[in-house]
Design goal:
There is one protein chain. The protein contains 17 helices and 20 strands. It folds into four domains: 108 residues, OB fold (Dihydrolipoamide Acetyltransferase, E2P) (Beta Barrel), CATH 2.40.50; 197 residues, no CATH class; 47 residues; 125 residues, no CATH class. The protein has 589 residues and is of the alpha+beta class.
């Protein structure tokens, strides 16, 4: 009953978020003059880097008026946290490109109270001042920089990238291939310091402190663990996911020790309640939703799942217990994972067991390295073992990814479908003592999952042509499970094209092939007929099934009669043409 009431309160809170968000109107306008304090900077090798700045003053007819608003910037300038700049630029609403399968960036940033974005050119700003960060922040930042430098100096580039993500939550040096491998294996969560890491660290610390039980009581041990976990959160940069996990586990651990009749589910909901009081928009944060659902699933389902198999062998039983934890967490996170990421890792049980073992061992070795790196004879041993462990972890992840059918894509349930799935799960949880209700719920779940799979099959077999909302001509034709992407661009543009088609193939699965459109004519024989492209100075004419489409990239006059004119997003809107700024143009075949 407590669980149902808690979930009901959460859903009612989510329903009220629209009205809450509409109150906060952005003060940033087109051609605004503002004073900005730089708060967060993206670490990457990209030419344009994401930067979060807080508007502290904005120019109006009454002069510079104080304000406080977070804004997203893209800049080529290497700012430093605490820089204060005067900026004159055009702000624009954060909008989605509306390409099939693409991430909902607008909701992601809006849920962080960020509604506007701007590009900062070299001539659009000037430095005013620099605000020094607090001593505590400087202290943790120095430790983090020192540890990052130690990992970079002692490990290979690939090993250091994984180590920094696993131990410090810094994913800036991870390659796209590495991220894709972990994602397909269902182990992406191990590369983002969050609940898994905080839980493992607490377990490791409690295990070590239990060896000194004659001197340290259980309560003191828990208190020491909580303090050390918050120190670790500071070292990782106090990212929202780490702070959320640290607070959640701190409340759970302290509640279990200080309250004899404490209920873990009540304590979990209390921690969520406090976080939502501080920031109500967290209710829409994907990490918040998945982390709390995972822990709730473990608290509600672990004992039942574990009891399904009785294994006498001590070590095999421990493996099964770890598997049971992964299954319990997965039960409540699957519907949301399908909704947000459109894929399901079929071998999640295998990857979860391996990840939990590797993550536990690597976190222990990493923490030991950070603690004892000043000891000359011990450091090279720990570095070697850490590097070897990371290599074995990556080999394991690639092995899971290479197994045929490792990931199932093509899921795109609506929000109502997701809510219905959770209602079914709630029925099955509550019906454990009512056999009739259990049978009815199981039958409904079977029918519903069959429908979900049928919808996926239809997506896989769907034939269509897509003109993508992107800065250069990019078109894909999907026919009988084969997706062929035709693009114009430089070598660097191929990464963008891969990103687009990676998102598309998650919701409309198929094997992807890339064809560059050279100047002049290109003929391609698809399973639905011959397609003829004509590339004239980046203007693309496409003839298929007796119909001609013109993808216009400049303001030249059309050279022939066409059926449909599609303008790239940067062109001024013409009422007679379709402008891709409105979203991708999709043609069913």
């Amino acid at each position: 009953m407590t669980t149902c009431i808690g979930i009901l309160i959460v859903l009612l809170g989510a329903e009220r978020m629209d009205s809450f968000q509409s109150v906060a109107d952005s003060k940033a306008r087109d051609d605004s003059s503002v004073i900005v304090e730089i708060e967060e900077l993206e670490k990457s090798d990209k030419p344009w880097k994401k930067t979060l700045g807080r508007l502290t003053h904005i120019k109006t007819k009454d002069g510079m008026v104080p304000c406080s608003e977070l804004v997203l910037f893209y800049t080529q300038t290497q700012f430093v946290q605490g820089d204060i700049i005067f900026l004159k630029t055009n702000f624009q609403e954060i909008e989605n490109a509306r390409n099939p399968g693409e991430f909902d960036a607008k909701s992601y940033w809006n849920n962080k109270s960020i509604r506007k974005m701007a590009f900062i050119g070299e001539s659009e700003f000037r430095y005013i001042d620099h605000k020094d960060i607090s001593r505590i922040t400087f202290f943790f930042k120095s430790i983090r920089s020192n540890l990052t430098a130690s990992l970079t100096a002692n490990l290979s580039r690939e090993q250091a990238g994984i180590a920094k993500a696993l131990l410090l939550g810094d994913k800036s040096t991870l390659s796209m291939e590495t991220k894709k491998s972990f994602g397909n294996a269902g182990a992406m969560h191990v590369l983002a310091v969050s609940g898994l890491h905080v839980g493992i660290i607490m377990y490791l610390l409690l295990f070590v402190l239990s060896k000194f039980s004659r001197f340290i009581s259980r309560r003191k041990a828990v208190l020491i663990c909580v303090i050390l976990v918050w120190i670790y959160a500071g070292i990782t940069g106090f990212s929202p996911s780490v702070m959320r996990a640290a607070f959640m586990f701190s409340v759970l651990m302290l509640g279990q020790v200080w309250s004899k009749n404490g209920n873990s589910v009540n304590t979990l909901f209390f921690s969520a309640f406090v976080l939502l009081l501080i920031n109500p928009l967290l209710i829409n944060d994907i990490g918040f939703q998945l982390s709390y659902l995972a822990v709730l699933g473990i608290l509600l389902m672990y004992k039942r799942v574990r009891s399904l198999l009785l294994i006498k062998n001590k070590w095999l039983n421990k493996i099964w217990e770890g598997t049971a934890v992964g299954i319990s967490a997965q039960i409540l996170t699957v519907p949301l994972s399908l909704y947000y990421f459109h894929q399901f890792p079929n071998y999640f049980m295998l990857s979860n067991v391996g990840v939990m073992v590797f993550a536990g061992v690597l976190l222990a070795i990493g923490l030991a390295l950070f603690t004892f790196k000043a000891i000359a004879f011990l450091k090279p041993i720990l570095v070697f073992v850490l590097g070897l462990g990371i290599s074995l972890l990556f080999f394991f992840i690639q092995f899971v990814e290479s197994i045929p059918g490792s990931v199932a894509t093509g899921f795109a349930p609506s929000a109502m479908i997701v809510l219905f799935l959770y209602a079914l799960i709630a029925i099955l949880i509550l019906a454990r003592k009512n056999k009739r209700l259990l049978y009815v719920g199981s039958l409904m779940a079977l029918i519903f999952l069959t429908g979900l799979q049928w919808d996926r099959y239809e997506r896989m077999s769907q034939n269509e042509m897509v003109f993508y909302n992107v800065g250069s001509p990019t078109i894909s034709i999907k026919s009988k499970g084969q997706i062929t992407c035709f693009y114009i661009g430089k070598k660097d543009d191929l990464k963008r094209v891969h990103f687009l088609l990676g998102a598309y193939s998650k919701v409309k699965p198929g094997s992807v092939k890339y064809v560059e459109l050279k100047e002049g004519k290109t003929k391609y024989k698809s399973k639905l007929g011959t397609v003829e492209f004509t590339n004239i100075n980046h203007d693309v004419y496409l003839e298929m099934n007796g119909k001609t489409y013109f993808l216009r990239s400049n303001y030249k006059q059309e050279e022939r009669m066409v059926d449909v004119v599609i303008d790239l997003p940067y062109l001024a809107k013409n009422q007679s043409n379709y402008n891709l700024k409105s979203g991708a143009y999709v043609v069913e075949l």
